[in-house]
Amino acid sequence: MLPLAQLLLFCGSLHSVNAQRQTQPSFNISVPIDVADNVSECEPLQMKLLPLTNGSALDVVPPFYVLSFELGGIGRADFLGADPQNLTWTVPHPQGTQLLFYIVDGAGNMSDEGLSAVLAGNTTNCHPTQVQSNFKVSVDSSQVATCDDLIVAISGGTKPYTVTVVGDTVLNYTLGANDDSFDYVNQIAPSESFIITASDAKGQWAVGTNLISSVGSTDLSCPGKEPTGLSSSSSSSDKGPIVGGIIGGIVVLLLAIGTATYFYIKRRRDTRLSAANRRQMPFDDEDVSPYVLPPDSNMQMQSLSTPLFARGPPSSVTVSESASGTLESAMLHNQRVSRNPTLLSGEHISSHSGSVYSTPDVYHVTTRLRPMTEKERVMAREEEIRRQKEVVQHVDADDILDVPPEYKERAGRPSGNSAARI
């Protein structure tokens, strides 16, 4: 088996993946008729070269080599000799193998292809020692339409790889230093078959030569499409930022939706609580009314008005001890209040007689929340009658009077028989 430098003489120099060398057949192979379709393993096969057209001169350059490819197996190159009319090839492939082979001269010119089946021979000692190789090539389909893509995957061996497409012409593509796959655009005529194989930088052929059928249109121009070398590592790294960007965008979107939902729910909850608090309030800003303490106080205060009897009715109508005035005027004021029941039904008790000031009534209503019911009016009247019955009678008195609290003018008066006893 020859090294790669000799093997690829048929295609001249190597080319980048975006360039290709297409080699058209320059001569024909002539083999005995009885072995045209079948050859025997480890037996010599006699061949000679003929011009493409009858009557033309044979234009070839020695030496000559045979390139043979086992379908699904491995490719190899063998030396044939220098005489184009006397070339001998001992078939090194085992029986049962389907072969596709070409003859290449020293200038890189190639013959048309030969396709044969290998039959059992008289010996097997010509087979090379089987070497386990991790250098493999595979395709993603055994049939491809014209101008469609065919992905060729390569593993093992030594980079850079060279992909060889062998049909009615031979195409060679040298991949980039990091490429380990190849996107081939099919430009083989429909109804034709071709093989794809690969070799590495050390001249080793890959295991897994593939036979592919071409179908589809006869238009082989394929505008805008070019074969491309691919790197699995670069492909993964190129997809990484895209995937990361998509995931990052989704996370940001979810965070935005979550934040908006939180503030929306919080706002609705605060609105409901505010409305509930307003319904529970017994008064508002209009229910606040000012009042002034008796004259001996310089403080100005406010009290909140509440409904009548909200905390129970007052037990009695009293007059401030700090107020100045006569006992008689206080009694007259007390009688006036007692005789005026309307003051107990929600009216203001805010009056003064002369210099006597009444204590501000914390039970009056400045802004009434609702009118009194009939039941409340009856209860208020019964309370008034009960209060009128609660009287204090002096031991030495003939008449029944309501006694007001002690006034300043009586403070310090000595007790005696004329003093009231309770």
TrEMBL record:
The keyword Membrane applies. The keyword Membrane applies. The chain crosses the membrane at residues 242-265. Gene3D superfamilies: Single helix bin (1.20.5.510). Residues 1-19 form the signal peptide. Keywords: Membrane, Signal, Transmembrane, Transmembrane helix. Residues 218-238, 401-422 are annotated as: Disordered. It comes from the Eukaryota. This is Uncharacterized protein. It comes from Sanghuangporus baumii (Phellinus baumii).
